[in-house]
Amino acid sequence: MFRPSGRALNGLGDSVQAQLYWSSFDTTLTVLDSATGVSLANAVGTARLQARTGRLFSNPETVNILARLDSIQAVETRDTVFVTADSLSDSLRVQAYALGGIPGGRRVVYTFAIFPDTGAVVTLVPNDTVFTSSATGIAAVSVRLLPGPIPDSVVVTATMRHVNGTVVPGSPQTFVVEFRP
After folding, report:
1. Which pTM was predicted?
2. How many whole angstroms separate alpha carbon 167 and alpha carbon 162?
3. What rounded mean pLDDT belongs to the chain?
4. Which of 41, 56, 129, 168 could make an SS bond with 160 (beta carbons 3.0 to 4.6 A apart)?
């Protein structure tokens, strides 16, 4: 279900009180209630949605319809990666699965905790937030240990959330990166 929002503007660009009615130009999106705009996706893809009040029509707006996230899991069955000091770990990869397509462009948030907390400096490469590949649904990061004290390990979690904020089943996935001097 999708509920668009909009507002009517006067010639000066100020909001005015007006009832908006919604309609779709495409079969990939069905407007269930024209007064609220509540719509239902019929297929993955794009659709054009338009609002109107009286004889005033908005420009059609494109709505991207994404595959519904089903689950997430680690790509590698092992969850311990060994690296040497001042090096880069193997990729910590998760794959998202969706009903009706590959969930490309979905956000995966990676976080880490260092054990023991020795003040070691680690970073996630390329970043702590990455997006799934549109071809495979895979998102990956690596852990880089910078010069300084060497921790025993870094625990990395990968979390995905639905648009409404709920956690995707299988999330979070946990990886342990052990450092060997």
Report:
1. 0.70
2. 6
3. 86
4. 168
Strand (E) or helix (H) holding 2: none
CA distance 143 to 113: 11
Longest dimension (CA), the chain: 73
Could you give the CA distance from residue 15 to residue 63 in angstroms, rounded to a whole number? 23
- The Cβ of residue 59 has, within 10 Å, a number of other Cβ atoms equal to 7
Domain containing residue 74: 68-180
Q: What is the DSSP letter of 38?
A: -
Same domain membership, residue 111 and residue 36: no
So what's the pLDDT on residue 117? Answer: 73
CA distances from 150 to 110, 115, 126 (A): 21, 10, 21
Q: Which of residues 41, 65, 89 is at a domain's end? A: 65
Mean pLDDT of 126-137: 90
Confidence band of 84 (pLDDT split at 50, 70, 90): low
What are the angstrom distances between the C-alpha of 90 and each of 78, 125, 146, 172, 175? Answer: 11, 11, 15, 19, 11
- Cα separation, 36 vs 150, in Å, equals 57
pLDDT at 103: 83
